[in-house]
Amino acid sequence: MARTVRVMLLQPRSTGGNFEYVAIPRQGMLFLSSALRDWSERSGAPYRYERTIWFEDRSGRMDPARDLDGVDILMITALVNETPRAYEVASQARELWPDLIILGGGPQMGPLAQEAIHHAKCDVVVQREAEDIIGPLCDLLLETPRSMRANELRKLDGIAFTDDFGQVVQRPFRRMIPSDLVKIPDYRAIKDLTPKNPMAAGVLETSRGCTESCSYCEVIQQFVGYRMVKPETELARIAQLQELAADGLIYRSPNDGRFAVFVSDDLHAPPRRAVKFRNERLSRARNWKGHTDGMFMISQNRAELGSDPEMADAFLAAGMGMLYIGVESSSAENLAAVKKRQAPDQMHTDLLALGSMGFDVVAMTIIGLPYDDEAAVMRLAEWARQVSRFQTANLLTPLPATVNWPQPNGGGMRLLNRDGGLLNGDGSYNPYGELPPYELFTGRQFVYQDDAVIGGEPRNWTLQRSREVMQAYMAKLRPIDTLYERIFRLMKRRAERLAREEQRELAVPMRV
């Protein structure tokens, strides 16, 4: 008979950045939970993995002393600004529950495995995707005494761990897996997911990776290449979201009864130059019609969708209402500097076209690029308001697995500490030394030494000055965050009303 193993999958609370971080559930833990479920259900499986997914942005802060009692395996992932909280929970868990198996992964811990093992006391860090390895890895860790684990772990690729001499072992990367190795994400394992506390939106993953190579983005390393899921998988995932909404687990608008669905990952419609991918996406979008009734769909795209009326019409017919467009900058010099392959004039025309077609366009912008001075930033704000209904904004931020991250050979950016001075005295990164102030990596201030030169003069935006520039820039925009905050207020009022109605019903004496 299979032994029951309790697994807690934790996504720590975000410290800021765009509000959509808390509006939608991140997909990584949902797919890992499904992978463990599928692994448990195979013939002769020695373990039955019971899974709970804890999103702190939904369910509040985890108390390791109380909430990890009886848990066998803790899995933690984090975005960059969630890292301090991830390390806090993991290190407390290690102290309180010495036998607990702790696994780390995701876009932050994966590239910085030495740091995660040192500060979070992880037994193993899984790098890149994990659906293919998570079941065998958990079995191995449960079956093998700690004193013998290092030898067994050497048989697996794509992981990092500490050997018997205290050295971090980095195994070679595994080959990339099919993007739908796990077909259906495990929404129903989410803690506190009930009709009284539904998700603000569902998420539909249709692909992994990207056809582009923008220098600031870590997707290229996390999801190598561009891999679409199978057409039948897309339809099965759409059907799952319809079922969840019917059960009251996704919030419906009180105005028209629709529910929001974010289409991920990062580039839903490939550029037209990627002909094969583009034609396949068009065919699929046309086939969605009839399956997506009642959905208000949101996706990330490139502006050139405005020059592709066939694709745009198919999206509109399937219920695609909002488009996040990565415009980044209106400066050709800035776009070239970050390897963003688009021309500002054409982008302007395409954005206006998308708005005229009926899409709600959200222009995603990055300020603090190499050729930005303060006047250019304010001009970008005026332009973004002209060509889009809503906007997002971030200051350029170095992320692990990008060329901007400090490199051992001296390349990359020089990081700042919390006080605005150079980290470790020289801006270098040391996985065992002073950690970067990850909680500030929200795109709301510079976290690196500004070495840009504008018109022959150093720009020299300090941490504090960059905050002031960001505040002035945001004051000129119509932030999409405002819309999400309104939705969350509506959801909160609805939950409070349901609670009051339930209390009134309980207060009515039963009639005999």
Structure characterization notes:
The protein has a seven-stranded mixed β-sheet with strand order 2-1-3-4-5-6-7, with helices on both faces. A six-stranded parallel β-sheet has the order 8-11-12-13-14-15. It has two domains: 3-170, Response regulator (Rossmann fold, 3-Layer(aba) Sandwich), CATH 3.40.50.2300; 194-489, pyruvate-formate lyase- activating enzyme, CATH 3.80.30. 36% of the residues lie in helices and 17% in strands. With 512 residues, the chain is α/β, with parallel strands linked by helices. The mean pLDDT is 91. It has helices at 20-23, 28-40, 56-59, 64-67, 83-96, 106-109, 113-120, 134-143, 149-153, 219-222, 231-246, 275-288, 309-317, 332-337, 344-357, 374-387, 463-474, 480-507, and strands at residues 3-11, 47-55, 73-77, 101-105, 124-126, 159-162, 168-170, 202-205, 207-209, 226-228, 259-264, 295-301, 320-328, 360-367, 390-395, 453-454, 457-458.
What is the CATH level 1 assignment of the largest domain? Answer: Alpha Beta
The structural domain count equals 2
* C-alpha-based Rg, rounded: 24 Å
- Overall shape: it is globular
**Structural class of the secondary elements?**
alpha/beta
Describe the sheet with the most strands. Answer: 7 strands, mixed
CATH topology of the largest domain: pyruvate-formate lyase- activating enzyme
Q: DSSP helix count? A: 18
Mean pLDDT, nearest integer? Answer: 91
Judging by the overall fold, what is the CATH architecture of the largest domain? Alpha-Beta Horseshoe
CATH superfamily of the largest domain: tm_1862 like domain
Low-confidence stretches: none
Extended strand count: 17
- Beta-strand portion reads 15-25%
How many angstroms separate the termini?
47 Å
Strand order of the largest sheet: 2-1-3-4-5-6-7
Helix residue percentage? 25-40%
